[in-house]
User: Fold these one by one.
Assistant:
Number 1:
Amino acid sequence: MAGLKSTDADVRMGARLTEARRAAGLTQRTVAAAIGVSAAQLQKYEKGTNRLSATSLPVIADLVGKQISWFFGDEPELTTEESAEIERAVLGAVQGIVDRRRGVGAEVRH
């Protein structure tokens, strides 16, 4: 994201992304294609240089078989119910973003 410097949290999330991708036996190119970015951009996410978008995280989590909350690694251990609740909230927020964008696009086309 332009103008925003990466933080320690971005670096930790990037390390988690790398760990999950490798454990799943996936290449950077495969994961990048799934979220619609270049392998070079995914590498920046993994290094924590660039921030991973909220819309990409659910796709990656599904691809590597992890819950979204797992990527925030420094959180205390959550119960399955707590993790599911967080995941529902994040997915709901992402869906809201997608719905708003579709609505804006539909208004522009008319």
Number 2:
Amino acid sequence: MASLPPVGSRVSIRYRLPAGTAHALTDVIGELQAVEPVIVLRTKSNGMVEVAPADVVAVRELSIVPVRASEIRALEHAAALAWPGTEQHWQDGWLLRAGGGYTSRANSAVPLDFSATVEALPPIIDWYRQRGLPPWLALPERLLPIRADGTKHTRVMVTNLTDAELDPAVMLSTTPDAAWLTGYQRDVPAEVLTAVIDGEVVFASLADTAVGRGAVTTAPDGTRWLGISAVHVGAGQRRQGHARRLCRTLLGWGTQQGATRAYVQVLSENSGAILLYHSLGFRLHHHHRYVDAVSLIA
């Protein structure tokens, strides 16, 4: 059986029908209510559909509510401002970001304007080559008709913000100190971590157990978004609620900065992080991936 997302997700399931029926397969879309001993979905009409796990042929997770391409573009714009690298350049509707090669987000081009097309790839490739960097494209789904599978498939999950209390044990700072950088355990320069365009950034730490980053930026449609990133918990401290406490404080901080919605970008195979954010109220908004621009014109 194909793997299932957490209970509460909206999914499309294709499954086998009993022998002798008019069609061998059928599809159902609904909110996942249970996964064992049988799969239970609540459909739009509030009807319940049960599916035996052995009959499932394919599963596709859907955004919790229908999402327009314009909403994907607006959120991706806010996210790009929140992790822009140390150098930026607009090229025919694409925002090109460079940060010395540290992190994919800070070193990729994302199509943020309606005018962005694949015709801009040659100058994009040249811009990155001048900086000694591979020309990675950050491609949100549905914004461009590019079929390349790419790499680092990512789920963008969102939630609405409400008032939240800040945990007094979680320390907040506008810059990452030595202890935060040690806890992050990734070799990323402070100038890349602190970079943000027209927004605010904060670095959260919980004793010697967990660290994380929050950034609030504004999308073109006026929505103030909090982006949570760089969350890391020490290997010996996991599954003890530290990441949850830290993220709740970042959500509270974001509310204080005027954010009304929050997002996270999680690698699709990072099941632990997906479950954590799902339990905090985050649901799938859209997917994106990274594609080498050279592969599209070779």
Number 3:
Amino acid sequence: MKYEDWKDKTAEFKKIDVRHLQGNFFLGLRKQAQNLEIGEGLEVIQTFEPHPLYAVLEPLGFVHHTEKTAVGEFHVYFYRAEIKEAGGQAPYAPLALLNYPMIDEELGEIAVNFWDLTWNNDKRTLSYEMRLLLSLANAVGAGRMRQASRELVKAYASGIDSAALDDVFELIAWNQGIGYFSSEIGPSALFQAYKLIKTQEKNGKSREEIKQLLMERFGEKNEEVGVS
């Protein structure tokens, strides 16, 4: 749907200024958006173009239009074009990006644009799922088990077969060594999430059921996985 088709309605949108807010406001915005009907919308004001917010609201049936009105001031209009089930939402909003504007607003804009270029740019050659697996492996190599756990859950939710995860863990054992794998990988949230997938698949659970279990046990409230 083109902006011209609904721009006359933007004056009625609820205005939400999230500039300089600290903490996780994604969940609050998403809850407000879920309560809107088709034809209603929100106007969000931020110091940088909020690419992560697009990823949060688009699966709910929202289209958006963005205007930069001044240095460090973006107005984004979200219009609900259809009602979509929230179940299709990808796991984990990129909450860690909210930390950078607290340090410096320009750094925040750079970080968000870098995230968007890395994960959303259609010029990427490798598939999204393949890049998640590479990111998982790189995170393990760098000792960032929190990131690795999140990438595993996102990869599985995106459709990666558990047999591909078998290959990834075999390569991790090969490259990191059996001793490191036994003492560091085995007890980690990363491997526990992998074991949950394998166990539940053997029990005949569907991918959606397993995805729900993963988010219940390895969501943002899990101290070994959350970043907020």
